[in-house]
Write a structure and sequence with these properties.
This protein has about 325 residues and is mainly β. The protein has 4 helices and 36 strands. It has 2 domains: about 100 residues, MurE/MurF, N-terminal domain (Udp-n-acetylmuramoylalanyl-d-glutamate--2,6- Diaminopimelate Ligase, Chain: A, domain 1, 3-Layer(aba) Sandwich), CATH 3.40.1390; about 210 residues, Hexapeptide repeat proteins (UDP N-Acetylglucosamine Acyltransferase, domain 1, 3 Solenoid), CATH 2.160.10.
């Protein structure tokens, strides 16, 4: 799926990788070793490199199938002797460098320049297009879909049947299900806000993931949904997003959830099913929000929330405790 949107180089020599990321440990038998890709812990395969940078991901260690793991000295104790580590000072900076080696064009987020001529729009049968629509190459649009004025659908995007895409919408690096409503001004699939300070400059992190939107979803006006970094940003079936919601890279929102206006999600948080979030709440990064959770408007969530919980306040806590403390 990633190769459809990004140009990837051929296998890289492990010696070249080691030189680029400057590992601190010594490895044996690395001549002529080729690496296919860099990927996440749970999706990794043989002849790939993955990375470990937080104890939050300890449960994923048994799922690692990658041949090599980028990490640092303090986390090396979590791995057995058979797992081959690439020890570095800064794990995420090293991952950014390696990702750029495999996907040299990933940082390019310029406007679409590879679009088809309007005379070719007739190939989209039973699709209604507004004025000044721009469609990239290899785009797929299902029947009975409507696309509003001044909207841009960039190359390789897929949109299902029965969708309504508003005016002034930009969609790139995305696959969208059936019966999805995307309201005016939404921007979907742009690169996320990932960078690392390095002396006198900030180093951008390449984002090579997608946005995957399920069926029967509504995306409100002026929403911004960032594509994933190495994994994907996912919006589950029948989830509704109000206006001016921001969803950062790698966020995963489950089915049948309701997110009201001006809610912000930091990167890599996972939201369960049937979750309701009130306006102007904020969800910190790398958190897990359970199923059937209700988060009151204006709350600040900085810790995991278990299933079937109602929370309120900053930091968000059980609503009964919050109300008792604020009588």
């Amino acid at each position: 799926m990633i190769n459809k949107f990004y140009k990837k180089v051929n296998d890289l020599d492990l010696n070249l990788i080691i030189k680029k990321i400057k590992i601190k440990n010594k490895l044996n038998s690395i001549n002529n070793v080729k690496i296919n890709n860099i990927t996440t812990l749970d999706q990794s395969k043989k002849n790939e490199v993955t990375f470990f940078h937080s104890v939050k991901y300890l449960p994923l260690i048994p799922k690692i199938k990658a041949s090599y793991i980028i990490t640092n000295e303090k986390f090396s104790k979590f791995f057995n002797k058979n797992q081959k580590l690439l020890i570095v000072d800064n794990v995420l900076l090293s991952v950014a460098k390696l990702t750029s080696m495999f996907y040299p064009d990933a940082l390019n987020d310029d406007f679409e320049s590879n679009f088809i001529d309007a005379s070719q729009f007739k190939k989209f049968k039973k699709v209604k297009l507004g004025n000044n629509v721009i469609i990239g190459k290899n785009v797929k649009i299902g029947t009975n879909t409507k696309i509003g004025h001044n909207t841009i659908i960039e190359s390789n995007v897929e949109i299902g049947t029965g969708c309504t895409i508003g005016s002034n919408v930009i969609i790139k690096k995305s696959i969208i299900g059936n019966n999805v409503n995307i309201l005016d001004g939404a921007v979907i699939g742009k690169k996320g806000f990932g960078f690392y300070p390095d002396k006198n400059k900030n180093i951008r992190y390449p984002h090579i993931g997608l946005v995957l939107i399920g069926n029967n979803v509504e995306v409100g006006c002026n929403n911004t949904i960032d594509r994933g970094s190495l994994s994907n940003t996912i919006i589950g079936d029948n989830t509704f997003l109000d206006n001016q919601v921001h969803i950062a890279h790698n966020v995963k929102i489950g089915k049948n959830s309701i997110i009201t206006a001006q809610v912000g999600f930091a990167g890599s948080s996972t939201i369960g099913e049937r979750v309701s979030i009130g306006g102007q709440a904020g969800i910190s990064g790398h958190l897990k929000i359970g199923n059937n959770v209700q988060i009151a408007g204006g709350s600040g969530v900085i810790k995991n929330i278990p299933d079937n919980t109602k929370v309120m306040g900053y930091p968000a806590k059980d609503i009964r405790i919050f109300l008792k403390e604020n009588k």
